Amino acid sequence: MTSPKTAATTDRMVEIRWHARGGQGAKTAAMFLAEAVLDTGMYGQGFPEYGPERRGAPMRGYTRISVEPIRRHCMIEKPGFVIVLDPTLLDSPAAGVTAGTDADTVFIINTTEAPSVIKEKLGVSGSTVHTVDATGIALDTIGRPIPNMPMIGALLAVKDVMTVEDLKQALVSRLGSKFSQVIIDGNLAAVDRANKELVSE
Questions:
Q1: pTM of the model
Q2: Pairing state of beta strands 106-110 and 128-132?
Q3: What is the per-residue pLDDT across 177-186, written as a single tens digit (0 to 9) for each?
Q4: 69, 154, 155, 187: which one has the fewest Cβ atoms less than 10 Å from its Cβ?
């Protein structure tokens, strides 16, 4: 695996759009990943799209990662990666999961269905689709259906913006003062499993 800096240099900037429902941790994931890459010498930017903030409502988050200072502060309209934490959003045109995407966009979906099924459902025949049962993994490892950290682990299986070990170190340093060791260990295990259990087409 190439180093995060080498990988990002090739792309100049990686732009990720997160789709989820309120309470699933997409805002946390978007911002956490942006903060975590700072530890590797990269630049990161993460923020949510503010709308009706109620639990269960569709929402979006955005992450930019670059080897150079990031001067854009707008929403990501043409993402290189689309990460969906709630598969029910695939059935909602209003969620805009495929908005601004093209054949180069990579989709990572939290679901137990096969990538081929999701690809047909989304109507993105030319794009790359990966799936992972992040909710199931979170329940097994953390004891709660919060799929955000497993989805970051899954992302690192297809895009090396940082190593899994770097991500785990960031988890320990940022969660250590807020959560018990049991929760931290659960998140570390969730990241490992999702990274290994991602299903590709």
A1: 0.91
A2: parallel
A3: 888 999 999 9
A4: 69
